[in-house]
Amino acid sequence: MKAVFISYNQALTEKVEYILDRLSLRGYTRWTQVQGRGEVKGEPHMGTHTWPAMNETILTIVPAEKAPELLERLKKLDNKTEMQGLRAFVWNVEDSI
Predict the structure, then answer these.
(1) Dist CA 48 CA 46 (whole Å)
(2) Cβ–Cβ under 8 Å, residues 73 and 19
(3) How far, in Å, CA of 51 to CA of 47, rounded?
(4) Structural domain of residue 21, as residue ranges?
(5) Is 26 contained in some domain?
(6) What confidence tens digit (pLDDT) does each residue in 40-88 have?
(7) Which helix (DSSP H) or strand (DSSP E) does residue 75 occupy?
(8) The domain spanning residue 23 has which CATH number?
(9) Most buried in the list 6, 29, 34, 35, measured by CB within 10 Å?
(10) Nearest 5°: CA angle at 90, between 87 and 95?
């Protein structure tokens, strides 16, 4: 199992959920109204007058064999919407209940 943490501009929510649905990845936890700033380029997403955009994040636990395809699809979405901002990180899941 792999834990995949996805952080993205809230404008991409439907597209990220569509990717999860297409891969039959049903379970996730989503945080809304998340503030942040990318490490390389792009504008901060702070929900303020100066920086009005906001992020959302999803944490999903997926079978190890599905993680590469999920990352590939998220990368394609990020390439199409580069100015919006999307990042994904993967960790091993050692145990769960």
Answers:
(1) 5
(2) yes
(3) 6
(4) 2-44+56-79+86-92
(5) yes
(6) 777 889 999 999 999 999 999 999 999 999 999 999 999 998 888 899 9
(7) helix 67-80
(8) 3.30.70.120
(9) 6
(10) 145
Contact predicate 12/84, CB 8 Å: yes
Q: Structurally, how many domains does the chain consist of?
A: 1
CA 92/CA 6 separation, integer angstroms:
15
Question: Of 73, 91, 89, whose CA–CA distance to 24 is shortest?
Answer: 73
**Residue 51 resides in a domain:** no
| Closest by CA position to 58, among listed 39, 77, 82, 83 | 77
pTM score, whole prediction = 0.93
Closest to 12 in 3D by CA, of 27, 25, 30: 30
Q: Is 62 inside any structural domain?
A: yes
In terms of Cβ atoms closer than 10 Å to its own Cβ (0-12, 13-18, 19+), residue 86 is buried
